[in-house]
Amino acid sequence: MFLRQLYYLREIDRLRSFSKAAEACNVSQPALSRAVRQLEEELGVVIVDRRKKVFGLTAEGVRVLKWAHDILRGVTEMRSEIALFRQELVGAVKIGVIPTAVHIVPILLAAIKEKIGDFSGDVSVLPNADIIDRLASKQLDLGIMYYDQCPQAQAFTVRSLYAEEQVLAGTTAFAFPDAREISWEEAARFPLALLGKDMRCRQLVDIGFQTAGVEPVIRLETGSLELIHAEIMRGDLVTILPLSSFPLRVPPAGRLQMRRLTGFSPGAIGLVRLNEAPPSDFVDRVWSVALETDFREELGRLC
After folding, report:
1. Percent of the chain as helix, strand, coil, to the nearest 5
2. What is the pLDDT of residues 182-227, one digit of tens each?
3. Cβ atoms of 13 and 56 closer than 8 Å
4. 174 in helix, strand or coil?
5. Is the CB of residue 219 less than 8 Å from the CB of residue 147?
6. Which of 13, 140, 188, 194 is the S-S candidate for 134 at Cβ 3.0 to 4.6 Å?
7. Which CATH number fits domain 3-80: 1.10.10.10, 1.10.760.10, 2.40.50.140, 3.90.1280.10?
8. Residue range 38-86, pLDDT digits in tens
9. Which string of DSSP letters, residue by residue, matches 112-134?
């Protein structure tokens, strides 16, 4: 048995296609099919159900695939541990974070380094659903996502990190009230660039306007935070986003003004992991550091 056979099997299942898997693995389809058949012969079971037109695994194939995931993950962890040993690092952690909380990650990474030591971090910016999927398949160690969308199944452990604060943000091209807070009624008068309606952050903004009984002036909807940041820095539009979606140092200094929105309780950001022994003592310590870190204090300096 070769590791590449297990890798091929994993890719076939992921892509649900022999031809696509062969392309992804940079081999010919006959070579990939031959490797899978050799694996079946060696194990004495049929892995792929070839009687169906639509790709599928046999019952035995499902069990083999699970072992393939575990073996390949073990190999990856072994290689990582050897690499860490060579670099004299204390550990490695894989984190998934939703786009609107991405700017708390530097705060967390700095706290880990200060309290534990030099380490290797792998951070993926993902939607809530992808974070859950990757936690379940052990491709991630920790997830940072909306608390109300964290999985409630017993397979997961969930803790609250901080309550989100929505802010109206725009350049000095717009006349914001002098007060540090602004109502949803006042915010509705400005031309807005908002995230798409499928994103939880945007859904919370819509609830804020609905609660206030006003209709906002929306000029741009997008799934890209980078585009929204670019538009508001041009001075053409303003936006409503969580504080954690803004860089901790927004250039040019003093040009971006922010006002906290009042009268509506926004969502909370949660920390989630599998409810089982962490893959390492280091990851367990990272979990503790994340829960001890005061993200609200750091974010409060923005506004």
Report:
1. 45, 20, 30
2. 999 999 999 999 999 988 889 989 999 999 999 999 999 999 988 9
3. no
4. coil
5. no
6. 140
7. 1.10.10.10
8. 999 999 999 988 877 677 888 898 999 888 888 887 787 777 667 666 6
9. HHHHT---EEEEEE--HHHHHHH
Give residue 185's region: left, alpha or beta (phi > 0; psi -120 to 50). alpha
Count CB-CB contacts under 10 A for residue 193.
23
Q: Which residues contact 131 (CB under 8 A, 6 or more apart)?
A: 96, 97, 98, 140, 143, 144, 145, 272
Instruction: Considering the domain delimited by 166-261, tell me its CATH architecture.
Output: 3-Layer(aba) Sandwich (3.40)
Domain parsing of the chain, residue ranges: 3-80, 89-163+268-300, 166-261
Asked if the domains at 89-163+268-300 and 166-261 fall in one CATH topology, the answer is yes
Q: pTM here?
A: 0.67
Q: Which residue has the tokens 């000029």?
A: 219
- Between CA 267 and CA 107 the distance in angstroms is 20
Beta bridge mates, 182: 261
Among candidate residues 20, 8, 12, the one with its CA nearest the CA of residue 57? 12
Q: Which of 237, 289, 288, 245 is nearest to 266 (CA)?
A: 245
Rounding to the nearest 10 degrees, give the CA dihedral for residues 53, 54, 59, 64. 110
Please classify residue 31 by burial: count the beta carbons closer than 10 Å to its beta carbon, then call 0-12 exposed, 13-18 middle and 19+ buried: exposed
Per DSSP bridges, beta strands 142-146 and 256-261 are: unpaired
Class of domain 89-163+268-300: alpha beta
Distances from the Cα of 99 to the Cα of 27, 127, 157, 199, 248, angstroms: 35, 7, 21, 10, 15
